[in-house]
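Slide 14.
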Amino acid sequence: MNRQLGTNLKRRIAILSMVSIGLSAFQSAVAQKVLTLEESIEFAKQSSPDIKKSTLNLLSNQKSLDAQRASLKSRFSLDFTPIDFSRTRLFNDFFSTFNTNEDYNSFANFSISQPIIHTDATLTLNNRLGYRNNFSEAQDLRTKNYSNNLFLQLDQPIFTYNRRRLQLRELELNLENAQLSNSMQLLTLERNVTQSFYAFYQAQNSLEIAQDEFSNQQVSYEITSNKVEADLLAEEELYQAELNLATSRSTLQNSQVTLDNAADDFKLLLGMDLAEDIQVEVDVNFITREVDINQAIQHGLDQRMELRQRAIDIERSEFELIRTNALNEFKGTVSLSMGVFGNDPNFGDIYAQPQNNPRVALTFSIPLWDWGEKRARLAAGTANLDMTKIDLQNQKNDIVINIRKTYRNLQNLETQIEIAQQNVKNAEITYEINLERYQNGDLTSMDLNLFQNQLSEKKSSLATSLINYKIELLNLKILSLYDFENQQPVIPTF
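Slide 15: predicted structure.
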């Protein structure tokens, strides 16, 4: 009976060994493409839909600003009407009869318009060249004439704000805001990729721990089966060893499923082909980073892009107050024009007798009563501006508080990592000692399984603490815009 039992045990051991080898081979097949954290982030930047949208938004704002700047340059225009013919029959009161009038015109108008951004004025040079052929039935007279009107005109708004300069400044702020949003989007992507990267690494590390545990359980099972075969242990010990081995194999399979799911999530975030086999490579060795809390806070307050965005919001609110103040405003326009006009039946003699055509116009728009509309809108705009200023101060306080919290977490994690490292060393030594005791028959398989579980738990806790430390360093980098891992600012200063 003992031989029969021994044969069955050997078969089981062989089958379990094949399962273990198969799982290891499967894991090796899966790990084909190895990615580092830096490679993952760069890959995500190229394929992330959010980054693509942010880049397009940046391009749109840049082109809008380019168009506005182009509109401030000189504009050349030519309007040409080669034929303008009309025939009308109207009643002439003076002669008490109907009169037919034919009129033919051909003219061209060339102008150069130059906006002046400093004063919001417009300077225009205009030249109108025309030919006219007119016939009147009443006097049986046909008149042919060439004419040319050349003049320079200045239109200057007064007692109002500079609309061109305000619009240009708004577009500049829109572009700056888009640049800030793009940079913040990149940092957010870096954080998301990092978190997903380490989640994948944890699943990968958990699988390795599960494989080690399964290997240890195989050794334990082999020792137990040999002792049972030699009648040194009761058969019940073999049953328990089989249960421990089956449980370990189930844990290994669950770890593989968790890893596969984490890999799919990671590839989806990076925009990779879901059918591609990947593995991540990371150095999580614990190295204490020198973090100056005062430097982190000051750098965050000086460089955080959200603060600049709040400042932009304040400036925009001030622009809205300027526009609101211009409702029903007292304003005026000064128009100055100086030119020369000439006409003659002969084209070459158009300016034989030139005439000066000066023009001066002063126009005022005077509001009389608006039923308190302007005052109410100004009060609403002022309240919005005050709220934006409060948001800016709250943002500063949030930055300081979050940097302090992250700094405290880093200090706490340093202590946890040191303890976790010592726990792993102790658990390894304890397991080795108790494995020897088990081999000598001084310990049951259930007791040995407890020490194995303890070792796996301590390894997993150490990996989690190391990853949490890395993530907190990244959080501090995003909060302060200073990379304490490499001791350099995130946004280079020149």
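Speaker note: The mean pLDDT is 83.
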